[in-house]
Amino acid sequence: MGHSEEEQQSTELLRAVVYVRISDDPEGTERGVDRQEADCRAYAAARGWEVVAVFRENDTSAFKQRTITLPSGERVRRVVRPQFRAMLTHLNDGQAQVMIAYDLDRAVRDPRDLEDLIDAKVLGGFTVRSVTGSLRLDTDSDVAMARVLVAMANKSSADTARRVARAAKQQAIEGAWHGGRVPFGYRAEAGELVIDPVTGPLVVEMYQRVLAGDSLYRIRKGWNARGILTTHGCAWSDRTLKLMLRNPSNKGVREYRPVMPDGSRAKTSKMQVKATWPALVDEDTWQQVSDVLDARKKARNFHQPGSGAAKRMYPFSGLIRCSKCGTAMIHRGGVYQCIQPTRGGCHRSIRSAEISKLVEEAVLATFEQITLNPTKRSSSDGDLAARVGLTATLDADRERLGRLDDDYYDGLIDKAMWVRQRARIAERIEATRREYTATLPEHAGPSIDVTTVAAEWEGRTPMWQYQAASLILQAVLVHAHPADMMTAVPKRRNESTEDFHVRRDAHRAAVLARRVEFVWRA
């Protein structure tokens, strides 16, 4: 009597787990694994088995290896399949008696994975089955046959990978599109890239805006507000904007980055040839924008001498100082604390949340005044008067840009007129910004427009916020707790919790107003 007849006659209700996998699913529809799961469930139902768990690995290769570090510190090459490992653990724990896969090559294509499955079966005592009948590990003959089939499947995958890599290199030599996800600004027609009439002008617009001095933050906010999505259908971030701007496809260049021996793709281009598709921007424009992004990155990573390369976590560290000893207070836990290394040094502290909120509100209020009425700030050197006029010019040109964009999107002007007028205004804005930057004092941080700080503050990095605050704020002095004020507010008898919180918050605000002193730059 065969194995299938024995299984069908068995009346014992066995628990089964289903493992499904597909190597390539670029669209993420999971239709392949859905079909496998349906067939595996039907296979289990026909034998009276209960499916208690399903382990799915969609768009996951069972052949490609990656370099990983084991807990022992040893670096090894392995096929990384978390769900496959989770299934083996599930079976070893005795939570199921049968493993079902659609086919042998859906379960394993790497000899090491097969040996792990064999070891788990020996230790756990579970049964291994497949819908096609190609996976069975009941006898030594079954195990030997599985090893042969996996070795053949592994070689087939290696041959395919080699042919695909050679074909990709040949495509790169010819400058042809390699397929896959279409770059933003293009669309695919008959296997070729052509400029998309909707997103193509948006890419050109972005290059012009960056050269005109617009920040990625402002562009990102505008695009997301207008409902412009990435090729993945997601909202834009600064990172995705940078990747799109640095894409060589935009300048009509086909880049080739081969897969390295460790399984990763080369970080630098190994070949660049003229592409067969049209360019969105010329090479000079593409390079100028790349240089601007590099300069902005260098400015963001700017640190004062001796500060090291640590990433800034708090925007006002270094500005908040002890009024007694003048030392910059350190953020520790929930407080800013003065820690003197000498004996008898003061240990003054203040709640970080309270002072950070107070400083941020004061800084933003000052920047809003600069934006709304810059003439209220005075300067003895005469540069401020020039900056006021330049700021008005910048604001007027930015308004012209906005109206020009609205006219184009509303169909009031054609594309040629829009591009010509926008280039003129962008060139004038860039010249004005250079003139404005030349009038800033030395402490004015790089690439920060004081007239737009208030609008850009939210969402910016702590390093950027620190540099912006340093333009107008010299220090925030923290005095000792007033002697005539309580350090803690006790709750009164019969006082409700809400009333107590209101009275406590009011007391803290009064104390904070007396303890904190702002030292503004002239």
Topology:
Elements: H1 3-9, E1 15-21, H2 31-46, E2 50-57, E3 66-69, E4 75-78, H3 82-92, E5 98-101, H4 104-107, H5 111-124, E6 127-130, H6 140-174, E7 186-189, E8 192-195, H7 199-211, H8 216-225, H9 238-245, E9 253-256, E10 271-274, H10 283-300, E11 320-322, E12 330-332, E13 335-337, E14 349-351, H11 352-372, H12 383-409, H13 415-438, H14 453-456, H15 462-472, E15 473-478, H16 497-515, E16 516-520
Parallel strand pairs: 1-2, 1-5, 5-6, 11-15
Antiparallel strand pairs: 3-4, 7-8, 9-10, 12-13, 13-14, 15-16
Helix pairs in contact: 3-5, 7-13, 12-13
Summarize the structure.
The chain is of the alpha/beta class.
Describe, in plain words, how this protein is organized in 3D.
46% of the residues lie in helices and 13% in strands. With 522 residues, it is an alpha/beta fold. The strands form six sheets. The chain has a four-stranded parallel sheet with strand order 2-1-5-6, with helices on both faces. Mean pLDDT is 80; it is low at 4-11, 303-309, 375-381 and 442-446. GO terms for molecular function: DNA binding; DNA strand exchange activity.
